[in-house]
Amino acid sequence: MKIITSASLKLSKLILRLLFKSIDQKNLLSALCLLIIVIAFSSCYLNFYRTNTQTTIDKATFKSIQAAHKYFVVHIGNGVQGLENITLQDDTIRGLLVALPLEHTKHLSPKIDRNNRVKKKNKVDALMEVHLYSDHPIEPGTKQFVAAITEINRMDVYELNKGRTMANHIVSTVGFIAGGAYIASIIYLAIACNCPHVYVNNDGQEQFANGLYSGAIYSTLERSDYLPLPSLSTASGTAQFKISNAEKEEQFINYVQLLQVNHPAGTKLLADRHGKFLSYQKTVRPSQASAGKSHDVRSNLNEQDHQYFSFDNEKAESGFSSLVLTFKKPAALKKVKLLINARNSKWAGYVHEEFVSMFGESYSKWTERQEKADPRILNKWQTDQALPLMVYIKTKKAWKFVDFFPLVGNMASRDLIMGLEVPDADATEFTIKLETTFRFWDIDFAAIDYSENAEITSDIINPSKAIKTDGTDQTKILVEKDSLYSHLVNDESINFNYVLPASKLNASYFLISGGYYHNLRQYAGKANTLDLYKFRKKGAFDRYSRMKYSSLTKQMTALTKNVED
């Protein structure tokens, strides 16, 4: 989302033209100074929300809010908690009570009859919130929330106050243009993962799961993905979900299968990037976690609490940003498993878009060449740029490359796993390094598991139905990995139905899918050949990312200083 919207920009320019026509040259400087003073006291580019407070709720309204994928916060007689997996059945609201995530603790006491301000960094999280109020207390430790819809005495559905926000943005834009600071319009940070989006359908409620094979933007980069589905409801003996096309692209889906993996109780499973399933039980946090000189970031990694480490530290000797983790281990143990929870950053999306725009009107010709390129060369270029999250382990002589975590997109964090072999089995600790381009990954959790891999059995389940939005049956196309692809464009999607076999032990479910996608955005102008040539060199993306970040930071600092002055 651009900081200066086209609507506010047009109105701002109109105001400026009227202003300049209405005053003479001698008073122009005074008028401009006055505008800047107005901006300084009114603050720049603020966002406001309204609560839409209701004291009674009907079932239709509640279900429509559920369908909008909002985050529910419940205010009960003895505290405030998050409410997940929420359902409404027979006038009864049910859900799982969880500790309220930090990002949803910012706006717990709004003013009903006034404009409420929301900071830009909190805007996305705040505007997806629905707050339910009940006087009914809940016993400490209770996990399940159960309440009649009539027990909810207030519901707030947060929504952007477009009129108040637009008015503030117009005033801000006028001031910035008048002060010669019209530079903020180049920022375009809200770029989401451009890849197929997966939604799980539980009892008629769609829940976003994650994206698939992020980064596979040409047929030559086609790959398989093993997406865990922990929220999948299987009580009915069936499973339903949807794969949707993302905006301004097209999807080429080769196959889609549901995998039921049966495993012993007390174990959890994840698949590595090669499709090998690894179990884990009790994770061990790092004893040290450093990012540069004396930078201890263990607090960012100990829990999945949305307190990310964003690889924003200085460049290491390798030319990238790195995170060094040290773990204690039992002597004589050689094989371990590394677990992380991570995502690609919004900044990564912005930098990639800036890079692609350099091709201008030649972008389509460039993509045609990539469709014929050697996949090994394309994958090597990605790793040479450290776009995936590269993993190294320390030996007595040097850092040894182990493998990498592939791109996962920035729509949601994802649990990832990798098997490691420790160089010195007799040592009581070992050190690994995670490395990537500056600010390209956000990591929320890191740990090691020392348990033996559990014995598992699995069943591949093909869809009983796979119906595209145009009514066509895609089932035969998607049951096998072959040369047949289902093609999605615009707002098309495919709805899948699966019949589940009985679970022999405990079962975990994974969506296995292969394919690729194309970016359909159009770019103007001639290709910036000189700058594009630089990207042939190793580490060019890191240098470019640091340059862009430094440039924007300096511009925004100057912008703020101009307003404050």
Tell me about this structure.
24% of the residues lie in helices and 34% in strands. The chain is of the alpha+beta class and 565 residues long. The protein folds into four domains: 6-48 and 164-186, no CATH class; 52-157, no CATH class; 197-265 and 456-519; 282-450, Sandwich (Jelly Rolls), CATH 2.60.120.260. The protein is built from twelve helices and 30 strands. The strands form seven sheets. The protein has a six-stranded mixed β-sheet with strand order 7-4-3-2-6-8. A five-stranded antiparallel β-sheet has the order 11-10-13-29-27, with no helix packed on it. Mean pLDDT is 84; it is low at 1-5, 18-42 and 175-192. Helix 1 (6-22) crosses helix 5 and helix 2 crosses helix 5. The radius of gyration is 26 Å and the shape is globular. Strand 10 (197-202) and strand 11 (205-211) form a beta hairpin.
Q: What is this entry, summarized?
A:
This protein is of the alpha+beta class. Helix content is 24%, strand content 34%.
CATH top level label of the largest domain: Mainly Beta
CATH superfamily label of the largest domain: Galactose-binding domain-like
Number of helices: 12
In the CATH hierarchy, the third-tier topology of the largest domain is known as Jelly Rolls
Q: How many domains comprise the coordinates?
A: 4
The whole-number mean of residue pLDDT values reads 84
How would you write the strand order of the largest sheet? 7-4-3-2-6-8
